[in-house]
Amino acid sequence: MEQGTINVIDFLLTEYAKSTALLSGRKFEDVVNELKNSGPLMAFRQFAVQYLDKNRPSAITHAEMNFVIQLMNMQRFSIAPDRRIVPGTMQSSGAIPITGRETAREMAMNATGMKGDMTPMGGPVDLSASMPAFSYDQAGPFQGPDRR
Are the C-beta atoms of residues 17 and 8 closer than 8 Å to each other? Predict the structure, then answer.
């Protein structure tokens, strides 16, 4: 596994623990310990990690602001929930506007902060400066020495 990454199951459990701690005013470590003591949750975690270890990703495709992953057992799932668009309505997926007079070039300029000549507002940007990266520890709080 790439340095600094954890599996998707532990990533989501960690984010859930952070959110729960923030909303309840409790310590993160207390929430993690409570979750670790939840038998059904840890049984699901163990099943999910073992399932994804056995049925590893074999293909990834991009579809409407989402990714679809196909596993080696030919099962497919998306990363994010589907956006619910009612058939027969003019609900935008966000990909392009369905009303208004904004052109694709204007949309790009508005979204990127570019001027008409497609240079960043305020002049050139130094892209050589490194950005601080956020990453999880190799072993998240739900991963033990006996777990992958």
Answer: no
Name the residue among 101, 103, 68 with its Cα closest to residue 82: 68
DSSP state of 11: H
The alpha carbon dihedral of 92, 98, 100, 105 has a sign of positive
Give the CA distances from residue 54 to residues 46, 49, 51, 62, in Å, rounded to whole numbers and listed in that order.
12, 9, 5, 23
pLDDT at 43: 94
Low-confidence stretches of the chain (pLDDT beneath 70): 1-3, 84-140, 143-148
Which residue reads 């007079």 in tokens?
A: 101
